[in-house]
Amino acid sequence: MKNSFFAVDLGATSGRTILGSFSDKGLELEEINRFPNQLIEVRGHYYWDIYALYQSVIDGLKLVAKRNVSITSIGIDTWGVDFVCVGKDGHLLRQPYAYRDPHTDGAPEALFTRVPRSRVYSLTGIQVMNFNSLFQLDTLRGNSDSALAVADKILFIPDALSYMLTGEMVTEYTIASTAQLVNAQTRKLEPELLKVVGLTEEHFGRFVYPGEQVGVLTKEIQKLTGLGAIPVIAVAGHDTASAVAAVPALNRNFAYLSSGTWSLMGVETDAPVITEETERLNFTNEGGVAGTIRLLKNICGMWLLERCRTGWENISYPELIAEAEKAEPFRSLINPDDACFANPADMQEAICRYCAETNQPVPETRGQIVRCIFESLALRYRQVLDNLRNLSPMPIETLHVIGGGSRNELLNQFTANAIGIPVIAGPSEATAIGNVMIQAMTAGEAEDIKGMRQLIHNSIPLKTYKPQNSENWDTAYIHFKHIIS
Predict the structure, then answer these.
(1) 270 belongs to the catalytic site
(2) Where is the Carbohydrate kinase FGGY N-terminal domain (predicted)?
């Protein structure tokens, strides 16, 4: 009987469970269930429903059990930085805050009055963003948060779900690295920064790396699902780390763009790159698989369009793309990472206001809005890639676009046009594939990352986009840099 691996892949807007296995044709994936992941707003704060996510995972396991599929192991990946407080009795103390909650506005500046920004960056190499766990914890401590005050353990979201399944508490390296609490050189939690927010290493679970076993399903979960004592593996718990593991590159001369709600553009290195230049540019050094570092930049991604669609009755992507293709090129451009786009009540209105304030034509149609978003993202990608070329120890010959955004043909072509090198799109299910592949390596079905990537390259249809209209895009880039300055 072939091995089957159960991957739980949770994003900031939806989640799904995937069954992965291998055949003569290569890697095969089957979606078991898909479910929403919605922010809960209560009294001015935003939370995640960890219990709803847990129940959806249980539902997926039940569906597999009914089919008598033999599951070799289970792995969980999620978005970064958010965490759950656990009491001494082992119970979750409340629903976790969501990173989009406004309570951390100004939090970095508050912390930097006590420890210099340069010191924090030199230790962690992590991009300063107000919602990083370091700043969330400092904010909660400053607000005398009742849950944090009595917390025995802090568990990041994938580790919290693993705990709910196994009863074992761990802190997985790649997800912890997003917190700005891990020393980039030692690859361990940094005591100096823990002390700043009133914590110690004892407040976290056993530190583990991708491929280590967390535990097995508890007796309760076995009875609930009809499954046996299946191992839960600590895969790359951060979804981007799992996705990057699945980049189907045949050599290391590439950059990657994990394209979804967020766009994360970077390169893979063997050691952290922490310099005055990376600090000035606010680049991050997050943990990767097999001892690698993901030198990258967080860029606002399809969040812009997703929020616009909520006011358009969620019109289909093909319809929006068709409208964008007909719209005038380079009519209006925005800085996707401007603070005004973080979580506005009305994204379309925020885009129009930005254009008006920068003395550009205000978009009047959906097609103009969508084209503005896509062209602006492509030009922002070029800006970040130009910086990466100066920072990367390897030449960058291609850009691999992975994740859901790899299916966006118009944006892929715009990106190739903007950056001037080929864009290779796929796989769209990179995060789930990376999750499955780490489990497969643990089970002995794959030898190393290089072998994994070769297998993915041979198993998954890929599409290459070559640069077009370079002169027009070069001119637009100059205009873009002028606008955002």
Answers:
(1) no
(2) 7-244
